[in-house]
Request: fold
Amino acid sequence: KQEVTQIPAALSVPEGENLVLNCSFTDSAIYNLQWFRQDPGKGLTSLLLIQSSQREQTSGRLNASLDKSSGRSTLYIAASQPGDSATYLCAVSGNNRLAFGKGNQVVVIP
Amino acid sequence: NAGVTQTPKFQVLKTGQSMTLQCAQDMNHNSMYWYRQDPGMGLRLIYYSASEGTTDKGEVPNGYNVSRLNKREFSLRLESAAPSQTSVYFCASSAQTGGTGELFFGEGSRLTVL
Reply:
């Protein structure tokens, strides 16, 4: 069974710093990996989807990398802003299943 | 730009009552999903539908039933609500099956069972 881990559960960073969020998974036989953002009381919004054949995806200030062999993905948010405060979840697809991590709750301090 | 729409957004039930959560998507997606999200447990799959007319159990199906009414709509029914079903319920859809495509979520339905 695929296990997805996101550590730490919560973190705070000063505005302007770069954010680095990590996602680890136990089974490297994945189809793709997705990063989501969730604001309090809201649903999940897809940020980036990386296919298993890709090493990274970029969208604006966001960059996500994937290393299947080590079972890791990193979400990098450049020059963080207070509006980036949210919970970030990763989800790994494989064997007809999608496994979610429990998320990193991020606070960007003005 | 509706995407995935869930109703109701909030509901309070008494133990033993029944209710149906409605979900509709306007993206012509094949696959639809129902998840529940609980503190410390993350997102858990209740049921999914790979295509119109098919439904399958997920990780936590007990106490729930689903109906894929047509390609757009996927409803979740609680026949006899229990306090353990207090949770936030999310509907999601994807163009592809088997969890392989990009997933789009609704805003959630917050259910409290007293």
Observations:
- DSSP finds no helices and eleven strands in chain B.
- Chain B has a mean pLDDT of 93.
